[in-house]
Design goal:
Chain lengths: ~290, ~550
Amino acid sequence: MALAENSASEKAHRGFGGHVLYVLSENPITAVAFGLFALIVIVAILGPLITPYDPLESNAARALQAPSADHWFGTDSVGRDVFSRVIIATRLDMMISVAAVALSFVVGSIVGSIAGYWGGWMDAVTGRFVDTIMAFPLFVLAMGIVAAMGNTVENIIYATAIINLPFYARVARAEVRIRREAGFAQAARLAGNTDIQVLALHIFPNALPPMMVQISLNMGWAILNAAGLSFIGLGVRPPTAEWGIMVAEGANFVVSGEWWLAFFPGLALMIAVFAFNLLGDGLRDIVDPRQRT
Amino acid sequence: MFLDVENLNVTFKTRRGLVSAVRDVSFTLEKGETLGIVGESGSGKSVSSYAIMRILDRNGRIANGRVSFDDMDLTAFSNREMRELRGREISMVFQNPRAALNPIRKVGHQIEDVLRRHSRATKYTARKKAIKALEAVRISDPEKRYDAYPFELSGGMCQRIVIAIALACDPRLLIADEPTTGLDVTTQKVVMDLLAELTTRRGMSSILITHDLGLAAEYCDRIVVMKDGEIVEQGKPDALFARPANAYTRRLISATPRPGAEIGDLVDPPLPSPPRPELGAPLLQVKNLSKVFGHGDDAVTAVDDISFDIREGETLGLVGESGCGKSTTSSMVMRLMDPSNGEILLNGKPMTDVPAAKFARDPRRASLQMVFQDATDSINPRFTARQAIADPIRRLTDEKPNGRVEELATQVGLPLTLLDRFPHQLSGGQKARVGIARALASRPKLLILDEPTAALDVSIQAVVLNLLAELRASLGVSYLFVSHDLHVVRLLCDRIIVMRKGRIVEEGDTASIMDNPTDDYTKTLLAATPMAPRADRDEVDIAITAKQAIAE
């Protein structure tokens, strides 16, 4: 009865953990990215527990010292420890970017899925709305939103979420659209699922792998965007520790030779963006069940 | 010896270590000969030919063995030398012509590419030569078709373009890998006849790789049967079919639908054909059904005023080639699409009062279910088999999914241990069973079978057809069997409707349609299917007994 039918049964079952390990071992760059990501998350969570100094405490006697055994990343113009400030800033920067990306992912997915599934006038309306956002230079739009709504962390999050929304909406629309008439969507309709159930339970989960790549790339942009806003004086205000502000403040001292003020927060920023950009491929492989064999 | 393959071994590096796809394969090919390589999916028939062309995937390699072509050892050739050879000496025709052609280049330019690549034409002569190549594959109005893009041409035309590209530089060996899979039977006949005529006229040797024994028997001088990466038998078609020595070959021959064979004869050992259910009152009535797509001048009539009935326990076959409107008809009967005109009645009550968009919540949804053509495409890749089968139970019935899923799995012969697998971890036959179990989950009265075996190997097709016949006998459901293949439909159906261009051209009992078709189109359809020479069961039995006698 079973000629080829038993061939699949020989394939051993592996758990999700085994799958993650396989993806990491197959692609060393993904492993590096996951390592960096884990480091960033741990630093963000532990934050205050691992800083050697109070990040806000100034000490005029120790101003502008170069990196040393006492102060690994040196001190700034009012004698605050740069290492502690870089560590503390991780949590704020991560919070802003995660919240902003989560918000644009949720709203963008809903808007894009609806446009992709029903098409017609809904597609036209959401399409033009998204085009309108895309028509602005995105960073200038974010500046405008923060300037108009007020200089707070929440507003940075909203601004970052709004400028990233179109990317999610477009990916979700395209991914849903190609699956709208797929066999499994038809089968789901026959199984008594309503349109919303077909979309939310059957089609959308299949659009997740490419969305994951988008999320990971976007996290990098979101961090850069938040830091950029702070750099030009919008958003987070001194003396709060934030990578963008620290680079902005440190930039004044680079010409006079105190390179460490801008260098270390800039390095942290670079590592974070780098890690998120590399994470994408690995994340896609992990959420795609077809990669599991 | 023109082509001599000796002890070819091909291995693939995969996640579970080295997998050997082809083991110790040896065969030869003379000048002007056509060799058929026949096997089911995973038999290594395509991989062998890719190895000859040296176009294996990056993780595959020729572990050992020799491929000598005209006394040159191809395995020792550098990539540069192989590039010179491909297209000029050996060329290939692929399975899916649309995928093999570049969608954004004119077909004429694609023929020129290969001519220029092998210096058979210059910038100035290329156009003329490309048009000549189009003429050679009998494309009407080649001057005009030169400027066509692949999407403007039908599947059969695209395959002719691919053949034109393959033959443009007069190669001495042509490898055709399932050249007609996915084409209609009438188109298949045209393409295969053309291919046979061109290779004969040019004195070329060719290798035809196919899963279809009938096709190989009709067009090949010699046949090699492969299974699991090994050659199990080879010989001349007549001898092979009359006296298959290998058990697998015998099973393959008996699984191929052919005139005279009953559904139970397809499996080995033969099963008694299950009883046909008693026919009851009319279950489904379709009256003057039409479907028009588009508006005004662009309007296309996909289904044009058709009417038919299905009684309780009856199986009706709906046969036609691609574009005849059979899929549109089944979508409308399934209430996934609203008709432009006409009525569909279930148990004498009209169903068209509830629009298709709202039908998912209608109580009659459970009575109408469907088995889809492509099991892979029709199961959500993120659902396990259990979740896929449980979905309709949860939505359409009051039953507890768990016990019922297992009951259904047992009914369709799916091992319970496989229920927690994802579709990509199941074989084609297992996925087909999941699809059937899901369709039966809501205890439907009418099941539409939309080419349920088109994507399956013949041996699996035989098993699935028998399963469907058993289920019909035990559950008493009615089937609407939609297919392009009259010889498959015949095995299961009481009555057959033949459709062409949205209209019903012939309707009648299975026997009368198969034996005395009145419509010309039905006759063409029947004649176009390649048939293997009949293997006489008695003769086979005698051969086996004789062998056993000698062995003893």
